[in-house]
Amino acid sequence: MLVRLTAVLACLALAACAAVAPPPDTAQLLPGTFGLFDNDVGAANLASWAFASPARTRNDPVDAARASAAVDFLAGELSSNPRWVMVSPLTKQGMLQARADVRRVLGVAPNAPSQIVVNVLLQFSAAWQFGNQPAAMQVFAAPVFTLPPQQTLQVVSNLPYIQSANVASMDAAREMLPGGDSGRR
What we know:
Layout: H1 2-19, H2 39-50, H3 61-80, H4 89-106, H5 114-129, H6 133-139, H7 149-157, H8 163-176
Helix pairs in contact: 2-3, 2-8, 3-4, 3-5, 4-8, 5-6
């Protein structure tokens, strides 16, 4: 009986290990990318502000690209960094859905590595902000984008309302605050 019980427990332990999914693809950021002290909270704040209303980024491709990079980064960061273990699993799943939806709108290949997507969006926003529009457009020629650079610019200059990005980034920003309502779902 003890041997049978041990075998059953061993099988259950193996099944539990097999059910654990690897963490989602997560980009790494340089310090200060989204805030002086905390990239994670800064990214959540920027994304929740930008995706609350399309009017906030209309004709502002810099903020739209940065907010899109923030969503892509947070989708992986919230699910892979132990710091955010208290963030609701629903919020984490919502952020992964937001990543997919923002990528679809921008014409980013669904399987593109997060690091490349985030780098391209941040490089575009830096070049555009400093007035180097040819360099900014060249960045959008990266193979991860399925749309021509001019069309990608049009999209990032006039982002539509993306409900998943709005809800997930708002939930993440709220739950990441000290004393936020994380885990209350």
